């Protein structure tokens, strides 16, 4: 049996996560096999109100013994200060969850303008323009004045290679090793060197 951590999150998080767990449990009933043990953990604004931090130490330590995590939406725009780390960003960094994998498939009973779609988007998930991903300590943002903030963008060779390898492995598993497209913004986000 797999231990799956469940963090409901903020706002619509409890509703979304509750339905996710319900669907998985219904599948378990249909196949007559219990696969998952749910480990309810706390993070987000409710955890802050209870423990004084958005990511309690008990949550962090118990994640180590779990095989996976269902994490609900978090109100990360409200998190400011040392006791309010962004839980999803902290978890991504801690477990090096660099590949955000998003399958996209058309539903046979629906009308789809572009025909039969079956693809997977693999996006780098630990770097980029998000300020909380760009510095060893603290966000990669500099407030120049009350109306202006500059954010740094982090792109490393290693993270780029990791996500590319993940995409090619996934394509090979799906029998499409010659069909990988790389989408970038090099035409807009120019490389500057000194």
UniProtKB/TrEMBL annotation:
It comes from the Bacteria. Pfam families: Iso_dh (PF00180). Gene3D superfamilies: Isopropylmalate Dehydrogenase (3.40.718.10). Keywords: Oxidoreductase. The keyword Oxidoreductase applies. One of its GO terms (molecular function) is isocitrate dehydrogenase (NAD+) activity. Residues 3-194 form the Isopropylmalate dehydrogenase-like domain. InterPro entries: IsoPropMal-DH-like_dom (IPR024084). GO terms for biological process: isocitrate metabolic process; tricarboxylic acid cycle. Belongs to the isocitrate and isopropylmalate dehydrogenases family. This is Isopropylmalate dehydrogenase-like domain-containing protein.
